[in-house]
Amino acid sequence: WPNWLPLSFRHADGDWFDLGDVEVLEFRQALDVRCGTLRRTVRFRDGRGRESALEVRRIVSMADCHQAAIEWTLTAENWSGPIEIRTALDGTVRNEGVARYRALNGWHLEPLATGCIGEDGIELSVRTNQSRLTMAQAARTRVFPAEAERERRTVEAPGWIAQIIACECRKQQPLRVEKSVAVYTSRDRAISEPVIESRSTIARDSSFAELLERHSIAWAHLWDRCDIGLGGNDNAQFVLRLHVFHLLQTTSMSTIDLDVGVPSRGLHGEAYRGHIFWDEMFIFPLLNLRIPEVTRALLMYRYRRLPEARWAARAEGYRGAMYPWQSGSNGREESQVLHLNPRSGRWVPDNTYRQRHVNATIAYNVWQYYEATGDAEFLSFYGAEMIVEIARFWASIAHHNPQRDRYEIHGVVGPDEFHTKYPGTEELGLKNNAYTNIMASWVLHCAGAALDRLGRDRRRELFEELALSDEETASWEEIGRKLFVPFHGEGIISQFEGFGDLEEFDWDGYRRKHGDIQRLDRILEAEGDTVNRYQASKQADVLMLFFLFSSAELAEVFERMGYPWTPETIPKNVQYYLHRTSHGSTLSRVVHSWVLARSDRERSWGFFERALASDVADIQGGTTAEGIHLGAMAGTVDLVQRGYTGLETRDDVLWFNPCLPEPLREVHLRIRYRGHWVDVEVTQERLRVRFDETWPRTARVGFRHEIHTVAAGETLEIALSPEC
Amino acid sequence: WPNWLPLSFRHADGDWFDLGDVEVLEFRQALDVRCGTLRRTVRFRDGRGRESALEVRRIVSMADCHQAAIEWTLTAENWSGPIEIRTALDGTVRNEGVARYRALNGWHLEPLATGCIGEDGIELSVRTNQSRLTMAQAARTRVFPAEAERERRTVEAPGWIAQIIACECRKQQPLRVEKSVAVYTSRDRAISEPVIESRSTIARDSSFAELLERHSIAWAHLWDRCDIGLGGNDNAQFVLRLHVFHLLQTTSMSTIDLDVGVPSRGLHGEAYRGHIFWDEMFIFPLLNLRIPEVTRALLMYRYRRLPEARWAARAEGYRGAMYPWQSGSNGREESQVLHLNPRSGRWVPDNTYRQRHVNATIAYNVWQYYEATGDAEFLSFYGAEMIVEIARFWASIAHHNPQRDRYEIHGVVGPDEFHTKYPGTEELGLKNNAYTNIMASWVLHCAGAALDRLGRDRRRELFEELALSDEETASWEEIGRKLFVPFHGEGIISQFEGFGDLEEFDWDGYRRKHGDIQRLDRILEAEGDTVNRYQASKQADVLMLFFLFSSAELAEVFERMGYPWTPETIPKNVQYYLHRTSHGSTLSRVVHSWVLARSDRERSWGFFERALASDVADIQGGTTAEGIHLGAMAGTVDLVQRGYTGLETRDDVLWFNPCLPEPLREVHLRIRYRGHWVDVEVTQERLRVRFDETWPRTARVGFRHEIHTVAAGETLEIALSPEC
C-alpha cells in the first residue's frame, strides 16, 4: 500500500488490517491504463469468522497535478459492529526499494510540522535533507454515509499524522471513505508557499467522482494522442499500451512546467537514484510526434544546464559544453566512481562516466525535435546554441593524428559499458569508439546546418555571444569529415580501435556454466578476470547507429567521412555483433530487433517480444522491482512507430519505408507533424498517409527514394511489395 | 549605495566613509544604458586634508542572471597610509522606499546563516518570512595590487557578514577592489539548493572585466532588438531609450525562466508592493515584436494562474476564469479593501478590485501575441484555453435585460479608479462601464476565432476538458453582439451608464485653489465630498478603446454590436473626455497623446513630451522614488512604435498608417514579425518596409485600406501625404 495515501482499518477489538493475518477469499488487482486507475478488490475472513469485502480505487490525477485520491469501500458481509479507520500522512518513508542500496542512507526527509485542518483535514510538511526542498501535503477524509462516523481523534509522531475515525459498520451496508491529498513543493510555480497551497486545495476539494472524471478525460486525451494500434496481435498491443502508460506517467502535460528530465527507471524506480542518463533519446520519437510541448520542456531541462556543461568542459580543458553521463538537479556529473559487484562483494573502480556520447544524444534530440515540429523559434532561441556548444566540445576533444591525417577521440567509453579501458593498461577509456566518432561527425555537420537556419541576425548574435568565428565553424565541418572510424576484418566497424584484436569470448562455455550471463562483467570480475579482454559487449554499441539513422542517412554520413558504405554494411555488422553481445542491457534487445527488422523479420519479432517482456516478465530477474526500464519501454514503442514503418522526419520530408514482421498485420498511428495531425496506416500490403484539413500547404512525403506531394485532407496510398 | 553590493572604507584613524562627512570636490553619477552600467566618480577632501578619488562601476549581469559585480577604485591623491575596506553581505534590509508604508511592517527576511568561503569569500542566507523562499548570496572580494592587502578579518551579526580588509594605500597609486556576488533562491531552476550554487558560482568566478564583457554583449544584443530610432529629436530619443532600458531591466531574457509577471513599478519600486495589475498590456507590443519568447513567458505566468482564476470566478458564482485586479505569487486577489488618504488621514473603503476588465486585457494579450508571432502551438496548447475561459466569465457575469433586449454587466469598476459606485448608494460598482462591455464583446467574439484556428482534434479535446458545447460557444457570439453600451449627448459613449447625469466638475475653480489636482479623489474625500458625484476621471477610460484598437477594428466591433460608428466618433469622444480628466494616472497622458495623434498632432506631441517626463522629471512630485511607472514608460515606447506609425498585426496582415507629429522627422524600427525581421522606416514623406531574406513566402502588408504583397528581401515604399 503506497505511502502517500495510507488508509487502514481495524475492528474495535483487533489489530490494524494486515493481509497476512486474514484468510484471503478473493484478491484482484487491476491497473486500468485507459484511465490511470489502480483497483484492488479483496474479500477475506478474519480469525473470528467475520467476512468482509474491500474495494479500493486510487488515482494520481493527470488533470490536477497536485492531487491524488483514494476511494475505499468496506462491506461487512456477515457482521455489524464498530470499526476504526486510520487515515494518515506519512513523512517517515525511506528509500528501500533497491536491496543493494539498503546499507546506504535511505532517509531523505526531515519532518517539519504536522497539524489538523478543520474537522476532517490533516497536514504534514517535510524537507528533503540535501536539496532542502519543502514538501507539504494536506489530506481530507470523508466517510459515507456521514451518519456512520462516530468520532475522530488525531495521533501524531515526528513526520507522521493520522486521524482515527470511529465508525459503525452495518452488515451488508457498504461504508465508503474518500480521501484526497494535495501535495506542493517549494519548487512549484504559481504558489505562495507549499503549506498554504496544499491547505487551500483541500479546502476547495472536489469529490472523488469529480476528480476521477477530470483525471479520466485527461487520460482519454493522452490516449487519443499517443495510442498506437496494432492489428492482429493482442498480447503485443496490451504490453505496448502498458509501456505507453508508463512513459506518460513519467513525462506528460503534468511535467511540462517542472524542471525535470527523463529518469531511466521512471518516477517510482529507485535504481540509479533518479539520475538522468540518455533515456530521453528513446522517448523523444514518441513525444515529438504526439505532444511536442513535452519534448520542448525536456530540451529546456538540458538548456538550463548548459552553463554547468560549459563549466565541465572547461574544467577538463575542453571548449564548448560537455554534458555529464549521469546527472541530477544542478546538472553536474553524478556518476559513481566505484561500483559494487554483488557477486564478488568488491568495490570496483568505475569509469563509465566517460560516456561522452551523451552529448551527441542531446544535439541529436534537438535536431529531431526541430525536424518534427519545424519550431524555428526554439531552434533560434535555445536549440542552435546547444548544438553549437556540443559541436565545439567534439572539435576540442578530437585531436589530429598526422600519420592518418584523421582526427581521433581518445579516453572515452561507448554505450557498451563492458569496455572501459584496454586490458593490461592503466589509462582510462578507449580510443576511437566508432559510435562516438560517427555521432560526433554528425553533430559537427549538424551545427553548420543549424546555424544556416537561423537567419543573419540571430546568427550574428550567437557568434558574438559565443565568440565564434567563420574559421571555427569551418573547422567543425573539416574535423567532422576527417574523424577516424576503426574497421577490422571485412568491413566490420570496430566497436573501438583494437576491438578486433581482443580475444573471442567462450559464450557457449559460460552459458553452460552460468546460465544467465547478462552481467558478464560481474561474473568475470568475480573470477579475477575482466571483460575488457574480450570481444564481448553488454549492449549493441556499433548497432546503435543503425537504430538512430536510416540506411539512407548513414550512407550520407559515411560518404562525407570518406568511408565505404555498401548494402552489406548493415547486415554484416549486425551479424558480427549479435554474436558478441550478452544483452546485459534491456535496450539491447530493442536495438537488435530494430536492426534485424529488414534483414530477418522473424528474428526481429523474437527480439521485439523479448523486449516487450522486459518488465512485465521481469526478465532480468528482479530489476523491475527497482524500477521500470524506461528506455526499453520507449524503445519497443518506437520500434513499432519508426522501426517497422521506416518513419523518419528528415530534410523537411516525412519519410516512410514500412516493413512489418509477419505477426504484425497492421500498425495505425496518428502523428503530429509540424503542428498538424497526420493519420498513418501500415499493413503488409499498403501504406496510407492522410493529412488533416488544416494543413496549410502541400506536404512532402517520401517513400524509399521518391518524394510525393500531398495536399490538406488528401490521402496518399502506396502498395507495398511483400519483400519490403 | 544599494545594499547587495555594500562596500566601504575608512582610514585607520577614522570612521567609515560618509559623503556627508567630507568636502566633495567632484561628483558624477552616470547610468550607461547602452551597457547597463552605473558609474560613480567622487573626489573629496576629509577633515585632515587628505584628498582622494573614488571611481565605482557596478553591474547586475544581463548575461549571467545570478551575478552582480562592483569595481571600486580608490586613488590617494595626496596621502599614503593604511586603510580598511569593508565588504559585506546584508540581509537586514527593510522595505522603506515608500514613506506612507513605513508604519507597516517592512521586514521580510529572516536570517538563516552566515559564513566564510576560503580566503576571500563570504556567504549569507536568509528566508522570506511569508513565502519562505530561501535566498543565498556569496561574495568574493579581491584587492589589486594583491600586495596592498595586509590582513582580513570577518565580522558577523544576525543576517549580516563582512570582511574587513586592511590595506596599505600609496599616494597616486590606485587601489582597485573587485567584488562579485552570486545570488540564488530556492525557486531557481537547475539547482541543487541555493547555498551550494552560490558558493560554486563564486568559486568559478570570473574577473570584473570578463563579467562586464559578457554583460555588455547581452545588452548590445538587447539594443539590437529593441532600439527605436527617432530622427530629429535628441531629448525624446534619450528618454525613450531610458524607458526601453527600464522595461528590459524589468523583463527580458533573464526573466523568461522565472515565474514572474510585470509589476507596475518595475523590480526596484516598492509602491503597490510588487503587485501585478494590467501593465503587461503596455509592454507587450514592444516585446511581441522584438523578443516574443519573453511575452510567451509572461503569458505562461497567467496560464499557471488559470486554476486560481477559475476558483475566483466560481467563488463569486460565475463560470470560466476571473483573473484578479491585483495579484501576487499564487494568483489570488491581493487588492486592498481599505485605502489611506494621506490628505485626510482617513482609511477609506476601496472598491477598485472590481476592475474585471483586467480579464479582457489578458485575452487581448494572448491574441496580440498570436497575431504577431503566428505561434499556433502556443494558441493550441495554452492560449485558446485562456481566451475561452475568460469569454465564459464574461458570458456569465452579463445578464439579459429584456426591456432593452441587451446584455448588461453591473457591479464593476472601469480603468478610471475615481468612479467606484454611484453617489448616494450603498451598492458597489457601476453599471455597464463602456470600456468593459466593449472589451467583453471583443473577447466573446475572439473566443470563436481562437477555437476556429485550433483544428478539429484540439478543439474537441478542449470542448471535453472544459465541458463546452456548441450551444455555449454560440451564446458567446450572441451575448457579445448584444452587450449594452451607454451613450449620452450626441454620440458620446458614456463612461458608464449614468455618467452623463453626474454633475460637471469645477475644474478651473479647483485648479486655482489646489494647483495640482491629479489626485482629485483625495482632495474631495478630505473635503467630505466624493469624486463619484462628478463627470471627472482619473484616467482615460473610454479613450483606452481608441488606444487598443485601430479605428478600422473598432468600426467592426461597433457594427457587430449594432451601434453607430462615424468618422466623428473618435474626435468627439476624445474632445469630451479630455476636458473631464485629472490625469491622476501616468498612463493617461500616453492615451491622450495616442488618441490625438491623428486629429491634433501638436497637442499629441505635447502629451507625449509630458508622458516622457513622467519619471525623469518625477512629474507627480515624488512617486518616482517609489518606483518607475512602467506602464507609462512602455506606453511612450508604444506610442512611437504603433501610435505614430499605425502599425497593427491583424488578420494575418501587417498594417501601417503612419502619421508623425511635426517635431518627429523619422522613426526607425526593426520588428520581429512571425519569426522574421522586418525593417520599418517612417518619415513625414514616406513609409519603407523591408522583409529579410529568410521570409518564406510573400508577406501581406496593409496601408490604410489596401493590402500589398511583399516577397523576401523586397522593400515596399509608399509616399505619404502631409495630412496623414
Query: Strand percentage of chain A, roughly?
Result: 15-25%
* Integer-rounded radius of gyration of chain A: 28 Å
Largest beta sheet of chain A: what is the strand line-up? 2-3-4-5-12-9-8-7
The unreliable regions of chain A are none
- List the chains of the largest interface with their residue counts: A-B, 55 and 55 residues
What's the average pLDDT of chain A?
Answer: 94
The biggest beta sheet of chain A reads: 8 strands, antiparallel
Which structural category fits the helices and strands of chain A? alpha+beta
State the oligomer: homodimer
Straight-line N-to-C gap of chain A: 49 Å
**Helical percentage of chain A:** 25-40%
Total count of strands of chain A: 27
Shape of chain A: globular
Describe the structure.
2 copies of one chain form a homodimer. Chain A has 724 residues and is of the alpha+beta class. Helices cover 34% and strands 24% of the residues of chain A. Chain A contains 20 helices and 27 strands. In chain A, the strands form 7 sheets. The first copy, chain A, has an 8-stranded antiparallel sheet, with helices on one face. In chain A, strands 13-22-23-24-27 form a 5-stranded antiparallel sheet. The first copy, chain A, has a 4-stranded antiparallel sheet with strand order 1-6-11-10, with no helix packed on it. In chain A, β3 and β4 form a beta hairpin. In chain A, α5 (280-288) crosses α20. The radius of gyration of chain A is 28 Å and the shape is globular. Chain A starts with 6 loop residues before the first strand and ends in a 5-residue tail after the last strand. In chain A, 47% of the residues are buried. The model of chain A has no long low-confidence stretch (mean pLDDT 94).
